[in-house]
Amino acid sequence: NWSTELDTLGLLCPLPVLKARKHLSMMQSGERMRLLANDPMAQIDVPHFCTAAGHRLISQEKNGDQLVFLIERARSRQSYYRVKNGSNHRVICQLPHLAAQPTHWPM
Questions:
Q1: Rounded CA gap, 3 and 67, in Å?
Q2: How far is CA 75 from CA 25, 27, 44, 56, 62, in A?
Q3: Which residue, 51, 86, 91, 100, has most beta carbons within 10 Å?
């Protein structure tokens, strides 16, 4: 069951993920989006995006050349601002308005 379907057939990396990110940012927490893609890199990019952004990848299927992903919008919109302190990183404040932007922090 999904509330939004996003057709990115014919688009190449990184466009399927960028369009998914844009549409997910406009959805409510817990809503689901069905993403259609046929770029082979989407098999790698979409799961990585979901992990980085905190969204739940419910399913991933391949039908011929077409990839079908079912993604649930993250329930928590928390994001953290981290400051490098020597070799350690520490959280100094939460910035909920940045949650739609996946960020990788060196550990």
A1: 18
A2: 12, 11, 23, 9, 27
A3: 100
pLDDT in tens, 85-98: 455 444 444 444 44
Instruction: Measure the CA–CA gap between 65 and 79, rounded to whole angstroms.
Output: 35
50 is catalytic: no
Phi, psi of 98 (to 5 degrees): -100, 5
Question: Which one is catalytic: 2, 4, 11, 13?
Answer: 13
Does 99 have pLDDT greater than 70?
no
Q: What percent of the chain has pLDDT over 90?
A: 68
Greater model confidence, 106 or 17: 17
Of the candidates 38, 6, 2, 9, which has an alpha carbon nearest to the alpha carbon of residue 21?
6
What are the backbone angles phi and psi of residue 71, rounded to the nearest 5°? -120, 135
Contact 38, 66 (CB under 8 A): yes
Mean pLDDT of 33-60: 96
What span, in angstroms and rounded, lies between the C-alpha atoms of 52 and 21? 11
